[in-house]
Amino acid sequence: MKKLFAGLGALVVMGGILIGIPVALVMLAGNPFPTAEQINAIISMRPDYGNVILFTKILPLLCWVVWAAFAGPFFVELGAAISGRPTRKKTAAFRGQQKLAATMIAAVGLMFAGSTVMAAAPAQASTSDAPAASSSAVSMDANQLGVTVASHIGQTMTAPAEAPVQQVVVHDVVEGDTLWDLAETYYGQGDRFVEIFNANLAPQADGSSLTDPDLILPGWKMTIPGVYSTAPAVEAPVAPAPTPSPDESADSVDQAPVVDDVDAGGGAGGAGGGGAGTVETRELGQSVDRPAVEVAPDAEASTEIDASIPLMTVGGIAGLLATGLLVALGTRRLRQRRRRAVGERIALPEPAAADLELEMNVVENPIAVEDVDNALRTLQAWAEDNGEQLPELLAVRVANDEVALYLAAPAQLPAPFESQSDDGMAWVVRPGMATAPERPTVSPYPALATIGTDVNGGFLLLDLEQIGSLNVVGDQETARGVLNALACEFATNPWSEQIHVTLVGMEDSFARDLDRIRIHQVEDVPALVRNLRADLEDRRSALDSYGVGGVLEARTQATEMESWAPHIVILAKTPEGHLRDELAELVARMPRLGIATISNGDALVAGATVEVTSRDQAEYRSGGAMPPLPFRPQVLAGEELELVQSLFATTTLASHPAVLEEEHPAPAAPEPVAADLADADGADEIPTVVSTEDAAEQATAQHETPEEAQPLEEAASASMNVPDWPAPYIRLLGPVDALNIADADAMPGRGVEFLAFLLLQNGGAPGALVQKNLWPDKLDPKNNNARQLAKQIRQALGHDPDGYPLLPEGRSNAGFTAHPMIRTDWHDFCDLIGPDLKTTSNENLVQAIKLVRGEPFAGTSRRRGWWGWRGPIEETMLAAIMDAADELAHRALQVGDHTQARFAARIAQATDPLNEAGWRLEIEAAMKAGDVDAFNRVVDEMIDRVGEDVELDEATQRLIDDAHAQMPGLS
Fold first, then answer.
1. Cα–Cα distance, 39 to 58 (Å, whole number)
2. How many CB atoms are closer than 10 A to CB 682?
3. For the segment 337-377, what is each residue's pLDDT rounded down to a tens digit?
4. How far is the C-alpha of 834 from the C-alpha of 848, rounded, in Å?
5. Are 683 and 742 in contact (CB under 8 A)?
6. DSSP readout, 97-122?
7. Cα dihedral angle (79, 84, 89, 90), rounded to 10 degrees?
């Protein structure tokens, strides 16, 4: 019906434009061409009395021109749709009209195609009723669970004839090709040329690279991702089809129409296909391309997407687990900084462990973690608010363009979830569409965890509470690594906050160290069985007291006293004898009671199984009739496990004395040069190249320097010479930006990052070092990312007044080097404070503090590995700034300058807002001034910032206790 109305509307609009407008113009204005006498009047500039010529000739003629500007492209698109050939929308003036015309033609075509499909529907329905009926009756028995979702997880039992499938096509560029033309040919939508551009950033065989979307050269091979072609129906299970050759792929694409979103109205390619109006079947492990949600453009978006970004580290840590581990590592490093004394530096990891952290920065996917958490909590809030029962979740697939939920029973979910199947068992939510509920909620599926990744670039997650029993078999070391990874996800996933995990036979488990509240460890299996039985009976009794049948129902209707956390038991080895029998009996009673087991070895009961054949290959078997689902397992074992443990062990080491001479960058020129910061906001400044600057500026604004704050002693000028020409200047001590760039528009997305890394290596670095730090996932001697990026930066920077390039070409003995006049604010900061803070003058100390505008590297994103190398130098910067602020504040307090002490304290708070050291400085200033109101305000701000549930540092609590003893009237 929707297609019918859309088609009728398009038909009416086209009739009105193509027929109605000409008829109206003829009836109202008649012949638009002026007579000979009127032409003579126009040429001789005689007055047009009554505006006769204007209203009867000139304006109608303009209306005819405008009409022709649409009608011409329309007839071009109509002819192309009839002949089945694509059109080239090269001319910008007509591109919009062509796209609009193509959309309306497609809508009309789909209307007529839909009537044909509707006429054939009764015959089709008769053949599909039986399977539909069988899939709607859902049993929670593990043996039947796979049958229920066979049409949604992995491979379908019978694929529909001529079902659209995706493949990658390689196109040989010929003279006259453009990215727009290729997008038209393969997608039917020219504006999708960006997808082809992003998939072809790697160097071509001749060494050249695609840098301009308007310029592709004959002979290049362009990868076209996500192209739909057709495949014949197959009966499952079958061996996977061989990957087609580029030539075969191109042929199949030429013969198959592009399948577009029919409701949105496709391009020219969607107008004629016989598949229009069909319902698309979604499967777990299958990604379907759709138009992306439009977002505000930013500087990173154009170059951040890289189709070759890996989903896992080399050893097998997937993106969601990497995110959780890095968040946990960051929390521990914050504790390190809070324990650090003035003049000390925190311990940092060894090189091998630091390399793994760099690799995890590349594969981490915090956006996906947030999307999954928000989607689950959105369901919880909806169920609570509307008295609905939570759907029974089996699995989740997370890809760049969607979070897909696969249910064990049909259900109707609220917006922003979109149904992807007729039976209501497959739903998706697009990235960013699910937002966190306004009120706090528990997560309804805390036992959801990643088992691995599929061949189409998605993360596969199972709800182990719903499955009840999962057996991991195969290679013992890898299987143990799968269990370790599951346990660590339970310890770090934000949606697993309400979970109880018991590890059996897993000595020295790393997951236990990550979270000792969620993760527990026992060795006494008889005691575990006894406790499980008691827990099971207690859970059953509690559910009966509320009159609910299971934990999903209880999580929406009985939450005032309990969160109904599931109990997951991970067994490193299946027990034998009567213990095995007792566990098997418990497993049989576990569905709906929130208790599940994951074991390594023989199955306790017939149920779901993960068979691991190697680190790169595994299969998931549901225990029913569903064909095996192949995937790459997530593994945490061997060397990577040892390196991860080393990373976390480093956070427990004591701090060590700082040696400023070693940590300060060496001067690259005899006379260090700073940019003229007085003009920092002037015409020479380029916009920051990071996508989250607004958030950083907001954080800095919360700690603005008091207006009344003045330096102890005003410095007449900075202690550095300023060049007589605008040398580029990189600011890192706050929101990252670059000043004085000759051609700001030509600066590539990672240009400032490249320059910053180079300058922080004392101005030079070998190409291999640059490659390792900026592209740690592409350590290939043939990779020339660094060379290509340096070339673009060189063009953007230009030359100095003497004609020398500001980024010289690389040298075999020194690698990449920057012009000695290019500086960063970190260089200036270090030069100002010198090798010993105790001997730094007040003038230099104030000037150094003034360089700080917020948290170092504020606004930079580590997504896709950008700025992932910054960790060690960032810790050094934080410590140095905090020490300088502490020194300035205590000098001010010694002379009774409480305002200046507050100035230093606010800089410290803006630099490291979760570190209580900066807040203690302002508390001290309030105490010295005897200002009760200021003291109460600062303490309240600190608690709001660090969190009400966070236990204050011992030094902070001691200072507050001293204040209460000295200052009456404190809150």
1. 11
2. 11
3. 999 999 999 999 999 999 999 999 989 999 999 999 999 99
4. 10
5. no
6. HHHHHHHHHHHHHHHHHHHHHHHHHH
7. -100
Q: How many C-beta atoms lie closer than 10 Å to residue 68's C-beta?
A: 11
Q: How far is CA 209 from CA 171, 221, 746, 788, in A?
A: 16, 11, 16, 8
Q: Say if residue 592 is exposed, middle or buried (CB neighbours under 10 Å; 0-12, 13-18, 19+).
A: buried
Q: What pLDDT is stored for residue 609 in this prediction?
A: 87
Cα 302 to Cα 447: distance, rounded to the nearest angstrom: 37
CA distances, 937 to each of 271, 925, 931, 968 (Å):
65, 12, 10, 15
Q: Provide the phi-psi class of 967: left if phi over 0, else alpha when psi is between -120 and 50, else beta.
A: beta
d(CA 679, CA 585): 76
Which residue from 728, 733, 734, 732 is spatially nearest to 686, judged by alpha carbons?
A: 728
Distance between CA atoms of residues 673 and 827, nearest Å: 9
Q: What are phi and psi of 965, to 5 degrees?
A: -75, -30
pLDDT band at residue 324, thresholds of 50, 70 and 90?
very high
Closest CA to 467 of 494, 492, 445, 499: 445
Q: How far apart are CA 310 and CA 263, in angstroms?
A: 33
Query: To 10 degrees, what angle do helices 319-339 and 871-894 make?
Result: 30
Sign of the Cα pseudo-torsion (262, 1, 422, 252, in order): negative
pLDDT of residue 918: 94
Q: What angle do CA 309, 634, 310 make, to 5 degrees?
A: 5
The model's pLDDT over 118-142, given as tens digits with 9 standing for 90+, comes to 333 333 333 334 333 333 333 333 3
pLDDT digits (tens, 9 = 90+) for 589-632: 654 455 556 666 666 666 688 889 888 999 998 766 567 889 99
Give dist(CA 878, CA 871) in Å, integer.
11
Going by their DSSP bridges, the two strands 459-463 and 344-345 should be labelled as: unpaired
CB 872 within 8 A of CB 882: no
Helix (H, G, I), strand (E, B) or coil at 663: helix
CA distance 953 to 920: 10
Q: What is the pLDDT of residue 606?
A: 61
Identify which of 405, 395, 396 has the alpha carbon closest to the alpha carbon of residue 428.
405
What pLDDT does 688 receive?
31
Taking 50 as the threshold, does the pLDDT of residue 477 lie above it? Answer: yes
- The alpha carbons of the chain give a radius of gyration, in whole angstroms, of 33
Using alpha carbons, select from 89, 118, 152, 132 the residue that is nearest to residue 1: 118
* Averaged pLDDT for residues 6-16: 76
Whether the Cβ atoms of residue 154 and residue 627 lie closer than 8 Å to each other? yes
Please, what is the end-to-end C-alpha distance for the chain in angstroms? 66
Q: What percent of the chain has pLDDT over 70?
A: 71
Residue 697 near residue 853 (C-beta atoms within 8 A): no
Distant-in-sequence, close-in-space partners of 24: CB < 8 Å, separation ≥ 6: none
Tens digits of residue pLDDT in 933-943? 999 999 999 99
Token duo for residue 799: 């030359």
Asked if 723 and 701 count as a contact pair (C-beta separation under 8 A), the reply is no
Cα 872 to Cα 343, 347, 351, 645, 875: the distances in Å are: 17, 10, 11, 18, 5
**pLDDT at position 226 over 50:** yes
Q: DSSP class of residue 738?
A: E
Q: Are 600 and 479 in contact (CB under 8 A)?
A: yes
Contact 190, 182 (CB under 8 A): no
- Helices H / strands E in the chain, number of each: 33, 23
